[in-house]
Structure to design on (503 residues):
């Protein structure tokens, strides 16, 4: 007797991350409440996890949280202008997280561990000034400054943590209150120096901004590790986004991850902002972190920017030199974030016509874990407001990922100005899709979607290309797109088609 076939395993649903803020969200302390109201709709579009902005108390209620003052204040204590952070109170945050978890959205916490800002008082310390372009070179003899390096957390007191921070907990700062001089000051002391386990930009890229934490100091290391355990017990999160990881000790971060694995259990999703255009540096970091860490694919963003700003650029090279091409399991793909949006320090200009193409390239392919940007879904505010990108179609593309982007992927990267690919579907998610895009004139591609789809009639879910495509007996169809545009073709009778265009 032939052994019975093993039961087929269900196909895992595609996951999508949502960055739940942009830089110019108003400082009205209502953002946690806005997100709480939005999570049902976000889940309906196919969002599974939400990266929230830094929830710890900043130096003011206007700061986005990267000006971090107190790790242990999530909007609970009356300090730095009030109880609330820019985003809301701790109670508001708890309600958001509970609502998100109720509807099936996990929360990724934005951990800002490189620096502290908004010190309560100055302290004197010995420093040397270093060359801003090569921080390994001293440009003065040692002397004393009056630095903003004393953190008392008086409103919180010893609740959650009794440690107050002093000059010896930091490795550098950038302002001398005694004479008003701004420079990069390396703080001196027994065994103190820049970390050796950081990016080598500018000679040594330990110093980024504000008061730079020194993770060789045992009190700093112990306090931040204790904070990780405290966070786990305070807020039911599913992962952490670590800010500015190329600027603080890789050795410490490895130790922190091991500590959290031991104390709260493995399973959190961990992603770092290691903003580099060097693929070698990024893949080395992932290997050093034993592939427990993902990174945002900065080279892919720069490819999108370059291609969108180059006439007749070669679309077939869009994934060259990218993290998703080299380490697809550890690559978080994206089109834009709060740092690369217009008028920010790392702004990467992506032309509006290319945004839909870029989102198809991250959402509808097999490789990478895509992150959708708040500003592309809801628009950007501030002095230079922008409407939602892609003609408001980003939610439909997210839902198309959830419903149709499964199975074998066949690439048709065979013409510089027009590329395409198909997903053939699986036994339990059978619909499949065909995507074709052009950065020049209107175009078409014959592409294979599988003989199991023969006779089906497919249409463009975006509505940007009219017409019907009937799949022939061999499983092929001729799929078209308009000039400088993209089309996503799916069986017109596929499950879920009625949900598109309603979100």
């Amino acid at each position: 007797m032939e052994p019975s076939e093993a039961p087929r395993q269900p196909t895992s649903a595609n996951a999508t991350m949502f960055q739940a803020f942009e830089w110019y969200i108003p400082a009205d302390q209502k953002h946690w409440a806005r997100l709480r109201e939005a999570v049902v709709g976000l889940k309906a579009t196919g969002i599974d996890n939400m990266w929230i902005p830094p929830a710890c108390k900043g130096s003011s209620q206007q700061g986005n949280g990267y000006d971090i003052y107190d790790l242990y204040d999530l909007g609970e204590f009356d300090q730095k202008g009030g109880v609330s952070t820019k985003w809301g109170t701790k109670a508001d945050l708890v309600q958001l997280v509970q609502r998100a978890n109720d509807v099936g959205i996990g929360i990724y916490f934005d951990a800002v561990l490189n620096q502290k800002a908004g010190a309560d008082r100055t302290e004197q310390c010995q420093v040397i000034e270093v060359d801003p372009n090569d921080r390994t070179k001293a440009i003065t003899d040692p002397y004393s400054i009056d630095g903003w390096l004393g953190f008392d957390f008086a409103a919180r007191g010893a609740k959650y943590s009794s440690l107050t921070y002093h000059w010896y907990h930091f490795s550098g700062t950038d302002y001398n209150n005694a004479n008003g001089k701004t420079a990069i000051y390396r703080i001196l002391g027994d065994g103190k120096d820049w970390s050796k386990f950081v990016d080598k930009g500018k000679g040594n890229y330990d110093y980024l901004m504000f008061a730079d934490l020194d993770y060789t100091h045992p009190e700093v290391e112990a306090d931040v590790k204790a904070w990780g355990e405290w966070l786990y017990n305070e807020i039911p999160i599913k992962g952490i986004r670590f800010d500015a990881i190329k600027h603080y000790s890789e050795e410490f971060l490895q130790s922190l991850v091991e500590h959290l694995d031991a104390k709260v259990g493995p399973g959190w999703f961990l992603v770092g902002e290691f903003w580099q255009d060097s693929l070698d540096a990024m893949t080395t970091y992932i290997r050093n972190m034993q592939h427990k860490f993902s990174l945002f694919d900065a080279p892919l963003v720069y490819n999108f920017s370059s291609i969108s700003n180059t006439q007749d650029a070669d679309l077939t090279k869009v994934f060259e030199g990218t993290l998703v091409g080299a380490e697809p399991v550890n690559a978080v793909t994206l089109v834009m974030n709060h740092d690369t949006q217009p008028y920010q320090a790392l702004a990467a200009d992506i032309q509006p016509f290319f945004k839909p193409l870029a989102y198809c390239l991250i959402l509808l392919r097999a490789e990478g874990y895509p992150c959708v940007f708040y500003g592309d879904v809801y628009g950007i505010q501030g002095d230079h407001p922008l409407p939602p990108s892609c003609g408001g179609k980003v939610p439909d593309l997210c839902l198309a990922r959830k419903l149709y982007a499964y199975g074998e992927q066949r690439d048709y990267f065979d013409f510089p100005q027009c590329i395409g690919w198909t997903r053939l579907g699986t036994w339990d998610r059978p619909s499949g899709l065909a995507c074709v895009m052009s950065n020049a004139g209107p175009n078409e591609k014959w592409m294979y979607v599988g003989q199991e789809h023969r006779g089906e009639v497919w249409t463009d879910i975006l509505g940007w290309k009219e017409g019907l495509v009937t799949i022939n007996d061999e499983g092929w169809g001729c799929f078209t797109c308009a000039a400088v545009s993209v089309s996503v073709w799916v069986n017109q009778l596929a499950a879920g088609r009625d949900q598109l265009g309603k979100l």
